[in-house]
Amino acid sequence: MKKIFFIVIVLITFSSNAFSQVFNWHKYNITANNDTEIYYDEKTIFQVGSYKFYWVLTNFLKNVEGDNFSSIGHHMANCKTNEVKMITFTFFDGLMGKGNVNYDFIDPEEYPEKFKWEHYDPKTTIYGGMLEEICNFK
Amino acid sequence: MRKFFNKIFLITYILLTTVNSASSAKFKWTKVIVSKNGSTELFYDKDTVFKVGGNVYFWQLTNNLANVKENIFSTISHIMVNCNTYEARNITYTDFKRPMSRGASDMEMIIPESQPDYFDWVYYSEKETIQGLVLKEVCKNY
Fold first, then answer.
1. Which of B78, B101, B112 is nearest residue A109 as measured by Cβ atoms?
2. Is A83 within a domain?
3. b/e per residue, A100-132, with b = 16+ CB within 10 A?
4. Cβ contact (<8 Å) for A108 and B54?
């Protein structure tokens, strides 16, 4: 029993430091027509200055365009206004951010004209509901 | 004796799980280096290092310890790095009036949006620059 206890403590202690980080995706919801599901990683939510930053995963389950089955992005939110800017985009040919990278870009660099605050209503949009949950993290 | 260890194991497990959850939104800074003249110290958060596509991303804290300008005592940035070339780009910038990202902040920006001319890949030598040493730490598992 002592040995098992010791091994478990050592494993728990070292597992968080010795290896590279992997996302721990929490599924928020799926669209009504079952074509898109969105996840976020709560351990990546940080308040920096006036904004919250976090990583988001999207799975594209139907009507897939250009072999892009999933994407991972780093987003920032103004929780006072329910507005979001999506900073990075990386598209994969597999679900859950797996497979090959089809393409990636930094949105304000590639599409500066599109890099604007977008409002997401928590009652009428899935992303808005997720944002409300994210903004509740203190 | 067996019951005693079962209890200790359960309590330790609950404590570790709870501590991990409660600190989910707090940075856990690891100090990497202080510059030779003692003016700057650099930290990064190990738990924020993620490889997405070809780049690795992480959060970094800089404390300005001497020659402080405009009362900016610390800054936080989200940085992307190409671990094959040791080139990096700062995506975000937020400054603070006190060390360790405390105090008021009077400037926060997305660099490719606000200062696109400064959003260039910059090579940092691990032997000659303190930023290079941070990149070495960040890239060691990639």
1. B112
2. yes
3. eebebebbbbeeeeebeeeebeeeeebbbbbbe
4. no
